[in-house]
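Weekly modeling sync, notes
Attendees: S.R. (lead), two postdocs, one rotation student

Agenda item 3: backlog of single-chain predictions. S.R. asked that every request posted to the team notebook include the full sequence so nobody has to chase files. The rotation student volunteered to paste the first one in as an example of the format we agreed on. Action items at the bottom.

Example entry:
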Amino acid sequence: MGVGNVLLRVFGTGIRVLQFLAAAVILGIFSYYLAVLKDHHLTIATWIRAAEGLSGAACLYALLGSLLTICLAGITFFGFIAMALDVCFVGAMIAIAVLTRDGTQTCSGNVNTPLGSGPTNSNADGYGKDGFGFGSGETVTYLPNLGLACRLEKTAFAVSIIAAGLFVISFFLQIPIARSHKREKRFGPSPANGYTSGSTRNRFWRRNKKTNPDTTGNVLPGHPTPGEIEGGYKAEAEANTRF
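Predicted structure, as returned to the notebook:
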């Protein structure tokens, strides 16, 4: 495998790892939102479930992509699938950014968050004693104030924009990876490159001029033709008659 191909695969794997980390951050934030809302018996909006599902799918795809990039990068079939999925997840990250657009607000004064709306230092309905549920006697997830909920949404918004950019990069990265893979197949191990894979070809100034092979030691002796044999016999017969 050529050095260029190895570098492309390492870079592609690094992009996939970053995608996984970005999706994992969003997934963790919305998992926390869902746990808080469920434990405190608050209404769970459909868009929160949607953001959770999209980030979870992106997390799984990026994890698998980081593994498959090492083994299958450059194969045309898998390259087309990866490019199609990259486009889908660019849309998914943009959708999450739209869903978390309240993250663009400053987290001061009155805010709108997935856990409720109000002043940043206030708590949503269902806060209970010390942030836990209403006297149920069971341990539930701690409900933060709306200021922290706002900052978490701001983080999810920013990370979704970054993740969308990472999926765009991996989309265009499939093209040079596929081309490098084709070059590796076309100019594979051979005497021209010392039986090492790669696309290295001899430069025109390094090419040796063709020389005539040495024929002095490997030439078989000539054999007479039937006509030459017959002529030889006649010449020998004439010579004998003279004597």
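Discussion: group reviewed the output briefly. Residues 13-110+153-187 form one domain.
Action items: rotation student to repeat for the remaining queue; S.R. to check formatting next week.
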